[in-house]
Amino acid sequence: MDYQTQYNQKLVTADEAVKVIKSGDWVDYAWTTGTPVALDAALAARADELEDVKVRGGILLWTPEIFKVENTAEHFTWNSWHMSGIERRAINDGFAFYSPMRFSELPKYYRENIRHLNVAMFQVTPMDRFGYFNFGPNASHLQAICDVADVVIVEVNENMPRCLGGFEESIHISQVDYVVEGDNPPIGELGAGAPATEVDEKVARMIIEEIPDGACLQMGIGAMPNAVGAMIAESDLKDLGVHTEMYIDAFADIAMNGRITGRKKTLDKGRQVYAFAAGTQKMYDYLNDNPECMCAPIDYTNSIEKIASIDNFISINNAVDVDLYGQINAESAGTRHISGAGGQLDFVMGAYLSRGGKSFICCSSTFTSKDGTVHSRIRPTLAEGSIVTDTRANAHYVVTEYGKVCLKGMSTWQRAEALIGIAHPDFRDDLIRDAEKQKIWRKSNRR
């Protein structure tokens, strides 16, 4: 049977496809740009018929229709691998929850721990002449989802960029149960956030000083990594490489300015490797059918062994706050959930093991709460309920606008002194008093 015949036999409407979903089922929406649109709307339309449908996804770029139904929690529970602002609001509304993970392990979670899923449904590119639907910029863990799903439904979107890889970046028509042709909405975009501030630029300059020609980059999302990316794009650095979890606009800008060649990479030479991408249309256009870019499963991109095998690996990520022991929280403000662990720890550990590699955790020295109070991001201890994303043993470089410190090899009193030294001056005396109470301040320490 030819592939087009199989396609035609499996082609149904979204309303018909979601009839396979029953009360109590587990349904997977994949995530980011792969989140279904037509299928989501069709499932929301069935809300009154369904109870306790549990849905997995993450990094939502738009609000799903299932979030909008009356008494959402009675019908749907959202389980997120990584939070966007949309999902944070859903937590407050009582029908969304975070699923803790180490990102590199996610495919294994599906194959060995979750092991069973009722329905997987997500957006893909149109089928190619060999019968494959490309996952778009979402290789990440999608094949693992499909491996354990009873039913796989693909929603075709002609606007989905075709992202080349090498393995587990596509699904064949023979592995698909239903095909739905959606309305081809624009691919969801994720902006870079507010423009870089003076603080962001100060931090970026200190990090760029540490990047040699031929380095391989990983950057997270946020104003500071984007500020670093913008400066790299305008720098005279050359022969840079990319091996990252998330591909962001900054990488496309750096590449289009001629700074990325991948010639010095000791793994996947010449390829920009990533697990998923979320950004602007400009970036999606750059990734589309680009043989220089390689979309790969997350257990490959975030493998500590793979990261460590790449010389001069530079990892740049954000934090919510850091305590005087060097514990890094990138996920919550106390018990209020903000983001997720993602692959930060994978890259913190892998970059340190790389020959010449460095991991940078960056943050502003302060933040201002809604009531106008200014708080230090360098804290005596993490707030009760805050999450330790990176343990004190794993922390490498911490950077604020007041400086950068390498914590490796430091005892507790050295760490306290170093971190207080990059805290905002207005908070240093209080931090010293707290360090004294915690028995991590020596009398010989500077004051």
From TrEMBL:
Its EC number is 2.8.3.-. The keyword Transferase applies. Keywords: Fatty acid metabolism, Lipid metabolism, Transferase. Residues 279-435 form the Acetyl-CoA hydrolase/transferase C-terminal domain. SUPFAM superfamilies: NagB/RpiA/CoA transferase-like. The active site is at residue 245. It catalyses: butanoate + acetyl-CoA = butanoyl-CoA + acetate. One of its GO terms (biological process) is acetate metabolic process. Residues 3-184 form the Acetyl-CoA hydrolase/transferase N-terminal domain. Gene3D superfamilies: 4-hydroxybutyrate coenzyme like domains, Acetyl-CoA hydrolase/transferase C-terminal domain, Glutaconate Coenzyme A-transferase. One of its GO terms (molecular function) is acetate CoA-transferase activity. Pathway: Lipid metabolism; butanoate metabolism. Coenzyme A-transferase that converts butyryl-CoA to butyrate. Belongs to the acetyl-CoA hydrolase/transferase family. Butyryl-CoA CoA-transferase subfamily. This is Butyryl-CoA:acetate CoA-transferase.
